[in-house]
Write a structure and sequence with these properties.
alpha/beta; TIM Barrel; three-stranded antiparallel β-sheet; 12 helices; globular
Amino acid sequence: MKPALRSLLSGIIDYAGIFPPAKLPLDEAIRNYAAYRRCGEQWMLGRFICPAGRLEELDAIGAELFAEAPPFSFSIVGRPTNDEASFLAAFDEDLAAIERFRDTHGERVVVDAFEVRLPADPAIARAEDAERTGAFLTRVAEAVDRAGPPALTLFYEGILDDAWRDAIPAVVSALADHAETHAMAYERYTGAGYKIRTGGVEASAFPSSEQVATVIDACRRADLPFKATAGLHHPIRHDAPSVGTKMHGFLNVFGAATLAARHSLDVDGLVEILDDEVAANFKVTDERFAWRHLGVSLDTIEDVRDGLALSYGSCSFDEPRDDLRALRLL
């Protein structure tokens, strides 16, 4: 195993087996996760993704599975809402569900990430009203401090509509500004990141390479972490007849982020990497990751994965692993 590849892919897959297209029963998905924790490629595995409303279903099986060390790590998904008031009410309920889950299983589980969609109101979802968006983020942070786990990072998903060119940088800037302004204000709320949906079960769910590049660029400039979800089952971008579009590759996305950090790539430069469908253009040595003529060192890879490009949710762990084997990277 080349150290550069291990650093690039360490903990990169948050297992989301209960979500489409796999859509496994929760019992089967959590057992899969337990098995992946024991496999040779367990170093690629991150958190188990579970909706807050389904945590109680894990109680019975958790009594058996969660005895296995180390603690099971979870990223919780909040329920979607249409406005600020319903968001905050649902958020409090979801925090209560997390608290019950932690009380039941104690130190055998860790919940330190919470994924939510911003309220659909464009004033917040696009951060069109900076003052209102900041006040909303403060209310969320205060709710976490009142009732959240010991440490919880929020990942906010905005909307990618016709206004995305303005909305993505505006939301990222609002999240970064709030984090900087209130860095020392909270004990439990540990900050925020941006969440981008990189695919789904139909073509319309896949963002363009320019949209993905804009997220990476905005987050790099604002020093804000991001995570992705859906559509990144395979290492390299490729045609996917099953959904009638091209699917993004996780080596493209996370490789582009590391190279952008080292070479200050702009959106156009990122798009070129994200659009590349030639696996041979992505090279890994013991100490470097490279795309064509651009390379990045092991230290930079580790810094980017720790603080910028964190992970992606996938309903499959087998497909990414098997594809890496086919490319002779594992």
